Amino acid sequence: MESEQLETEGKASKWEQALQRLEITPEQRLVIENAKAKEADDWSLEEADLIMRVSREARRLQAVDEYKALPQDDREREHHRVWQLIGGYTAFIAAACLAVISSSKSEGSYAFAFSFWVVSLPLLCGAMLLDYHVRVRQARLNSKVRSFLLTVGVLSSHLGTVGMVSTYSWVAAVVYGLCPLLVGLYLHETIALGAEKLRGSLD
Predict the structure, then answer these.
(1) Is residue 78 part of a domain?
(2) Fewest Cβ atoms nearer than 10 Å: which of 18, 22, 39, 47?
(3) Average pLDDT over residues 130-145
(4) Digit-coded pLDDT (tens) for 142-179
C-alpha cells in the first residue's frame, strides 16, 4: 500500500513538473487535467513522454484559441482556400462523371469508376458547405462530421480514379493508388520537422 502511494506521488510530481515547464493558460491546464483524469493509464508515462504529451495538447488548445480570436474576414479567407482546393477537385470528379456518361460505356472499369465518383460528389459538396459553417460561423477548427465527409468522399473518388486508370495500365493504377499515402507521409514528416526546428529556434 505504501509503495503504491509513493508511486502515485511520484507520478503526480512528474505531472506538476511537466505543467510547470510549459507556458499554458489556466483554462488550458484545466482541459489537460480533465483529459488526464479520463485517461489515467495513458498518462502514466516517463517524464519526457509526459512533457511531450502535455506540450502537444497545449499547442492544440493554443491553435484553437488563436483561431477563435481571428476576425471573421480571416476565417472566411481560410474557408476560401479550402473551398478552392476541394472545389477544384470536386469539379474534376464531376467532369470525369460527365465524360463517362457521354462515352456511353457502362462495362468493367468504367462502371466501377463511375459508381465511386457518383458516391463521392455529395460527400465532397457536403464537406465544403459544412466547412463554411464550422470555420466562419462557429469559429471552430475541428469537426468530426466534416472530417468524415471529406475522408470518405476523397477515398471514394480516389478508388474510382484508380479503377479508371486500371483500364489502361494496372501498374499505373497501383502506383497512382499508393501516391497519396507516400505524399501524405512525406508532407507529415516535412511539416513535423519544420515545426521542430521552429520550436528549437524559439527556445
Answers:
(1) yes
(2) 39
(3) 79
(4) 788 888 999 999 999 999 999 898 888 889 889 988 88
Same domain membership, residue 139 and residue 156: yes
Task: Return d(Cα 49, Cα 56) in angstroms, integer.
Answer: 11
Number of domains in the chain: 2
Residue 13 pLDDT > 70: no
Among 100, 121, 101, CA closest to 163: 100
Q: What are phi and psi of 162, to 5 degrees?
A: -60, -40
Domain that holds residue 57: 2-68
d(CA 203, CA 197): 10
Q: How many CA atoms lie within 13 A of 60 on its CB side?
A: 10
The pLDDT tens digits of the residues spanning 61-100 come to 666 666 666 676 777 777 788 788 888 999 999 999 998 8
Same structural domain for residues 9 and 47? yes
User: Do 84 and 154 belong to one domain?
Assistant: yes
Grid cell, residue 74, equals 480571416
Q: How far apart are CA 40 and CA 8, in angstroms?
A: 11
Q: Is residue 192 a part of any domain in this protein?
A: no
d(CA 165, CA 171): 9
